[in-house]
């Protein structure tokens, strides 16, 4: 049923039209909640340092975590000491808030916080209560700026900057709120945004008031090698190759994303013949998910970096087939931000 509804999120189908009254109720509830914060019925809290939220208006993958990673890396080059908080979607930690370390797994805190920690090497604290997470982080680490991965709709924390990411291809879908459409809030909520960033795979003009973010994939890193973040424990540098080296070959392509076709199409653009294996966003992999690789043991397996943080432990533990480490590769996402966007962030800070 859910997939049938989602197929109409871009262009409404009869089932979506039937659900439209529920979308109106959902939008009204979100409006009432915002009004409660505005009137002080629900309390919001101010942090003692600049606070940036990187969020979105639609469900599904739009690229907010890659943007946050790029922003954190940029802020570090400017001499700042950033920290990150996250809700930790699907994390099953026994206690919250939970700080991410090299020994914490994606099963405990969610895949995106682990990826952020591995890529940025900054303090990351996870928990459903963002205020408690922020306090834990600031109590243990010296940071002069804090960023939240997601949270545009989380109004309990006051922010200095709201950056909203928009999918350049799907935009706002059919323009309806959940469940008939993909919107978490009506489009007028964009008026709260400080900056609107459009995730584009190719250079194209942005609309007035929007900034461009270009994503691409160029390299593959073999899993299990030292330095890949997978805890393989090997004493050799990670093997890195160009994706063009896979050109003309057939590979298994694994993507547990909100929009897996984006990854598959990026691989196809490198002339790679793919056998696509899409999984739900934030899917927690088990060895059974890779039975296809055992059946075709000579084909490489390429996966997104977010999925690799969940699959690397399977390789390290030997749960996958013998010799698997030689065939499993993660594909890091390269992010290029418009200079005007970085200037706007710095000016706001």
Portion in strands: 15-25%
Low-confidence stretches: 231-235
Number of helices: 10
Order of helices and strands: HHEHEEHHEHEEEEEEEHEHEHEEH
Q: Radius of gyration, rounded?
A: 20 Å
Average predicted local confidence, pLDDT: 90
**End-to-end distance, in Å?**
45 Å
Number of strands: 15
Kindly give the count of domains.
Answer: 2
* Strand arrangement, major sheet: 3-4-2-5-1-6-7-8-15
Helix content: 25-40%
| Shape summary | globular
Key traits:
349 residues, alpha/beta, 2 domains, 9-stranded mixed sheet, 10 helices
Write a structural description:
The protein has 10 helices and 15 strands. Helices cover 31% and strands 21% of the residues. It folds into 2 domains: 14-80 and 144-213 and 337-348, no CATH class; 219-332. A 9-stranded mixed beta sheet has the order 3-4-2-5-1-6-7-8-15, sandwiched between helices. A 6-stranded mixed beta sheet has the order 10-9-14-13-11-12. The model is unreliable at 231-235 (pLDDT under 50). The longest helix has 26 residues, at 14-39. It is globular, with a radius of gyration of 20 Å. With 349 residues, the protein is an alpha/beta fold.
Provide a short characterization of the protein structure:
The chain is α/β, with parallel strands linked by helices.
